[in-house]
Design brief:
This protein is mainly alpha-helical. The chain has three domains: 36 residues, no CATH class; 125 residues, no CATH class; 100 residues, Helix Hairpins, CATH 1.10.287.70. It is built from twelve helices and no strands. The C terminus is likely disordered. InterPro entries: K_chnl_dom (IPR013099), VG_K_chnl (IPR028325). One of its GO terms (biological process) is action potential.
């Protein structure tokens, strides 16, 4: 049964919520809190939507209609086919410009004024320059249209040309979700970072003493730390590997420890979650029982008072 429906029934029959049995209260109160949070979230979403519609109402004049069309074209791809074409075009230009940027990092495709040597593929450099100029012009025009048509100019300054409809509110919601997640799991994350840090420092120190006198190439402590971090958190970068027998043995031990470390961390999280849930249930049952005992006229309260009076008379 829905907790809100039960709450309405209790209000209709004028039944106090505090006289619920503890087993029922354990299900009733958490569901009420969830429903209240969902209702608040829906109300806030409706207010934001109403505020957005009010801000984006540019009027029925020719300029207002043109501004509405351009704003929907840039901001809401779901409003029309033209807006979808615009969104895919912007996304395609972003991908192409990113690809040309990656290609431009290769020495063979860099400009002559950057390297001092003629490029091996001058036609490719010329094409990449054209693509970069087209992308820059496209994003400048898109940004100007967004800024001119935006209902709130300051919020439009938060936009970045990445092919998606970024705005201040979406960034705010994502940031709030991230902060809420970190706030809920900061203890587990802190413990995980502590265990990883201790393990990395321990094995880095061991492999440093094992490889510092290596004739093939001595390791510094920074090299050992980098090797330990990559080996513990990934499958290894591959640029460094122990060559001595003690170093190889330490590497095997670290890989074995890595598997046990992550497995124990998962088990700890599960155990901590169960203990937290058990403590919340015990607290809720205790509070509900105290509330029941303090309600005048409740059966349990009358029973307790009667028992106290009988015990008091017996002692007399």
């Amino acid at each position: 049964m829905c907790a809100l429906v039960l709450q309405k029934d209790l209000d209709y029959w004028q039944i106090d919520e505090l006289i619920l049995e503890p087993c029922c209260a354990l299900k009733y109160y958490p569901e009420i809190e969830i429903c209240v949070k969902e209702q608040k979230g829906e109300q806030q979403a409706k207010k934001k939507e109403a505020q957005r519609l009010e801000d984006e109402n540019f009027g029925l004049s020719l300029i207002g209609k043109l501004r509405t069309f351009l704003w929907n074209l840039m901001e809401y791809p779901e409003t029309s086919k033209y807006a979808q074409i615009m969104a895919f075009t912007s996304l395609g230009i972003v991908l192409i410009s990113t690809f040309t940027f990656v290609l431009g990092t290769f020495p063979e495709l860099q400009r002559e004024e950057e390297t001092g040597f003629p490029s091996d593929f001058p036609w490719a450099v010329f094409l990449m320059n054209i693509v970069d100029n087209i992308a820059i012009c496209f994003f400048i025009i898109e940004y100007l249209i967004r800024f001119i048509c935006a209902p709130r100019k300051l919020q439009s300054l938060n936009w970045r040309p990445t092919g998606f409809s970024y705005n201040g509110e979406s960034w705010k919601d994502c940031l709030q979700s991230l902060i809420y997640t970190l706030n809920q799991a900061y203890k587990e994350l802190g413990l995980l970072m502590l265990l990883v840090g201790v393990a990395v420092l321990t094995f880095s120190s061991l492999v440093y003493f094992a490889e510092k006198d290596n004739p093939l190439g001595a390791w510094s402590f920074l090299d050992s730390f980098w090797w330990g971090l990559m080996t513990l958190t990934t499958v290894g970068y591959g640029d460094l590997s122990p060559s001595t027998f003690p170093g190889k043995l330490i590497g095997v031990l670290q890989v074995t420890t890595k598997n046990r470390l992550w497995r124990n961390e998962v088990a700890y999280k599960k155990n901590d979650r169960e203990q937290k849930k058990r403590r919340e249930m015990e607290t809720l049952m205790r509070d509900n029982l105290l509330n029941i005992l303090t309600v005048p006229g409740s059966p349990i309260n009358c029973y307790v008072l009667s028992a106290e009076s009988i015990a008091h008379g017996f002692h007399k």
